[in-house]
Design a protein that fits this description.
The chain is of the alpha/beta class. The longest helix is centred in the C-terminal third of the chain and has 10 residues.
Length: 117
């Protein structure tokens, strides 16, 4: 499973590992800004796309909008993971599958079956 995270402050892979999620089955990439976001999505071809809202130079909402309005293949699962619940809700309304405060992203059922315990 290929996971691409757009998050500018927190190491999402480290958050998953700290929560006891076995990340060995994943190919994980994190982008620390949203520069050329669609190109990274096109080239990496993630199954799961994690989007923070507050991220330079364009927001996660804008990345989502550009993705959905483009010919770039849509990842199977798109997760809005801002620290602000209303921004997550806006991304869900725009087309994300899940919206969750980023510090709870490890609680999503998409990680089930990948516990390292």
């Amino acid at each position: 499973m290929r996971i691409l995270a757009f998050e500018d402050m927190y190491d999402i892979h480290e958050m998953l590992v700290s929560a006891g999620i076995d990340t060995k089955p994943f190919v994980f990439e994190q982008r620390w800004n949203s520069t050329d976001a669609l190109e990274h999505i096109r080239n990496f071809r993630p199954n799961i796309l994690l989007l923070d809202h507050y991220m330079p130079p364009i927001s996660g909402y804008e990345v989502l909008t550009q993705l959905l309005d483009s010919d770039v293949p849509r990842p199977d699962t798109i997760v809005a993971m801002s620290s602000e619940p209303s921004k997550n809700q806006a991304m869900v309304e725009r087309g994300a599958n899940h919206g969750i405060v980023k510090f709870k992203v490890t609680e999503l059922d998409i990680w089930s079956g990948h516990s390292s315990s």
